[in-house]
Amino acid sequence: MCGIFATTGHISDELMKNVLQSMEHRGPDEGKDHMLDHFHLGHQRLSIIGLHDGIQPIANADQSKWIVCNGEIYNYPQLKKELQQKTTFLTESDSEVALKIYEEEGLNGVTRLDGMFAYFIANETDNTFFAVRDTLGIKPLYYGRDEQGHYVFASELKTIYEVVETAHEFPAGHYFTPETGFVCYRSINSPDVSSILTETPMEDITTQIHHHLTNAVDKRLLADVEVGVLLSGGLDSSLIAALAKKLHKEKHPLKSFCVGSEGSEDLKRARDVAEAIGTEHYEYVYTKEELLEIIPTVIYYLESFEPSLVRSALPNYFVSKLAAQHVKVILSGEGADELFAGYDYLKDFTKTKTLNDEIIRIINTLHNVNLQRADRMSMAHSLELRVPFLDLKLIDYALKVPAELKLHSDQRMEKWLLRKSFEGMLPEHVLWRKKEEFSEGSGALDILEIHANNAISEEEMNRLNKLAPVNLRSKQEAMYYRIFKEHFPQESALETVGRWATT
Q1: Which residue of 118, 228, 267, 341 is surrounded by the most CB atoms within 10 Å?
Q2: Consecutive H or E run containing 406
Q3: Is 468 found in the same domain as 401?
């Protein structure tokens, strides 16, 4: 995992130093820039695969094409084996596969990559470039143009604002070249009616869900460093932890991590699960004072003021800090509520088509809400976070499941089908435990509400709402917005902030 920067112009050594420093948290192991005839590339590396020779930018043999990449390509061993018949690899890095695919197959080669990524390829021969972001936007990318009109790309807002005045979020599932503009190369689509598993026995469906999630976890254990698991004690993280423990092949024990305030439910439940599945468990108890003190830092790294996002980011920040003391890669339960209709309001979508449309809509919004929080809070501590539930093959299969098997009711609790798919893997009281929001289970919710009411008077609320070009819906949002503007005063920053319908 890394931080990337690329421009079609050239910037000074001093400015490049600031650029690299602004994203050093994304990759503290190595930092490097390279000036080409037509491009200037920068990279901060967190070494995960190809530890000894994967420093970027990476060039091809004749140094006519260069790549800076942030992410992991899970099917790189298979692709590399195939491509080695046509070309020579110069490193052990998975990122080089993306460069070779571009060399051999052109723009559409990106459709063969299975992973989370954002990368930029400079083509010196043709004086052109290729920028791309993964299907769901798991990895971030922003773009803009400087005063001379040069294109600029970077992993975070704070980095791109070192060079440009106006920044935009690069759309998920798209690539960009100067010749083509933005092109959607892959999107999540609702399956044809004929593909819906209406006649398939439920046992076959649960077997396939078990198979696809197991494979999703297995491929995300790929690393040359130690991989751990986040464990809140809820269903989603517990399933990922249990599968990771089952698939874990290393000599050292699998490590799990949880945080919460004193006496919070997350801590109790996570201990229970860790003992049941046999992980080496770590926890951290944060105080009210620590929670409130860290708010400005969290908003700086999060690059958002959306209240529900900030609330969940605070404990995420603490758990990432804890995990980073022991591992370099972590698995998370993000995405299960979207994929298996865990949110309460989804029970109103009773038809498979309308439910799928809503599930696809919310999956496609994750890039600047939950996935942004997951990326920024982990990378704030130089920790790579992976999300097995958002595996494309699992998403494709889950969308074929009829609505009546996904929706919860008075007779069936939320994510009933997912629970059924893993019976026997977790203790019954864990497997059938009711969902609880992370910030609620970790004890943060009440603390933040009281603090916002004390910090923002009615007069200040009115003042901020008059000044803000967006509607501030609560005192919590106003408090977070005020801090956000201190870090990101540029107007274009507001356009990148994802917002839920409610606070």
Answers
A1: 341
A2: helix 403-406
A3: no
Least Cα distance to 480 among 291, 318, 310 occurs for 310
Q: Residue 366 is encoded by which pair of tokens? A: 């994750």
pTM above 0.90, yes or no: yes
Cα gap 446→73, rounded to integer Å: 40
Q: pLDDT digits over 394-409, tens only?
A: 999 999 999 999 998 8
CA dihedral 483, 489, 495, 496 (to 10 degrees): -60
Q: Which of 150-164, 411-425, 433-447 has the lowest mean pLDDT?
A: 433-447
Same domain, yes or no, for 284 and 407? yes
Q: What is the pLDDT of residues 349-393, one digit of tens each?
A: 999 999 999 999 999 999 999 999 999 999 999 999 999 999 999
**What is the residue range of 471's domain?**
456-495
Do 391 and 416 sit in the same domain of this protein? yes
pLDDT score, position 16: 98
Residue 195 in any domain: the answer is no
| Residue 162 and residue 239 in one domain | no
* Strand ranges across the sheet with 2-7: 30-35, 40-45, 2-7, 151-154, 142-145, 167-169
> In 84-137, which ranges are continuous DSSP H helix?
95-105
On whether both 282 and 338 belong to a single domain, the answer is yes
- Which H/E stretch holds residue 130? strand 128-133
Q: What is the CATH number of the domain that holds 154?
A: 3.60.20.10
Burial readout 302-317 (b: 16 or more C-beta within 10 A, e: otherwise): bbbbbbbbbbbbbbbb
* Residues involved in catalysis: 2
C-alpha triplet 24, 28, 34: angle, nearest 5°: 70
Residue 192 within any structural domain of the chain = no
Helix, coil or strand: residue 59 = strand
**Do 402 and 286 fall within a single domain?**
yes
Closest CA to 304 of 493, 462, 439, 21: 493
Q: CA 122, CA 120: separation in Å to the nearest integer?
A: 7
- Co-location of 440 and 461 in the same domain: no
Instruction: State the Cα–Cα distance between residues 449 and 421, nearest whole angstrom.
Output: 37
